[in-house]
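Q: Hi! First time doing this. I have a protein sequence and I read that you can turn it into a structure. Is that right? Here it is:
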Amino acid sequence: MDKEQLWIERLRKYIEDNKADRNNKVCTWWLRLEYNDETPTAQINYWLNKSVAKGILGKETSCYYTKYWFLNTLKGEKR
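A: Yes, that's right. Below is the predicted 3D structure, encoded as structure tokens:
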């Protein structure tokens, strides 16, 4: 499994565990903390941005966070 797919699966699992906000949007630093991963948040964003470019994920960015969510369904079920 490549890094992009790894973080997509972690995002899916995080949403399934109902830890996302009311719109199923997840901050990448939440993922990093959840999985106790030493990967910098910027690197996680890099991998998830690849999925945004492919139309798999949506993205919302502010000066404080970047949130991602699945575009195909609310819970990110596989197609």
